[in-house]
Amino acid sequence: MNTTDSYKTIATPSEVILFKEKNSKFFGYAFPITCENEIKTLIEPLRKKHFNAVHFCYAFQTGSTLVHYRVNDDGEPSNSAGIPIYGQIHSFGLTNILVVIVRYFGGTKLGVGGLVPAYKTAAQLTLESATIIEKTIDVHYIISFEYKNINKVMRVIKEKNAAIIYQKMELGCEIEIATRKKNAEILFEAFNSMFEINIKEKE
């Protein structure tokens, strides 16, 4: 998807939007996600809220360098709902996101020619209403050392603008730090070249 060390996603679940087409109603929702396992728990409450709706179509994408995505037409004609929704995720350049469009049938069949633009527009309006943010792709390291070397370690962390995620300060100290992917190699070398200090990438 991209070779940089950042990606775009949404900050929080979007406000619901409503799009109407020939008496059919399309309610749009967008959620930030990190993995596919979250999808069921996000769609279940929508099924309860919209118990008279006929279709709960969605598309999602996760990952930044290794991208994983899926589309679901939920009973609509093949490729008439999930693909247009996913197309909008792609056109906004987003990842780690789920977009769900809930459809109430209005009595008039739209056909594939009507469904594709309807789902596309509903997804577009949903994403336009969401707050889009940029996040960095971070690499996490574990540094272990004796307490007497604390000042040396802290100086490098500060100089390299690394973030401290977790620290255990005893005789044997351990600190988990995070840095942007593009700075990771320089940070690793800075610690790796230091005497009595061990650094390894967090798995």
TrEMBL record:
Pfam families: Impact_N. One of its GO terms (biological process) is regulation of translational initiation. InterPro entries: Impact, Impact_N, Impact_N_sf, Ribosomal_Su5_D2-typ_SF. Residues 22-126 form the Impact N-terminal domain. One of its GO terms (cellular component) is cytoplasm. Gene3D superfamilies: Impact, N-terminal domain (3.30.230.30). PANTHER family: IMPACT FAMILY MEMBER YIGZ, IMPACT-RELATED. Belongs to the IMPACT family. This is YigZ family protein. It comes from Flavobacterium luteum.
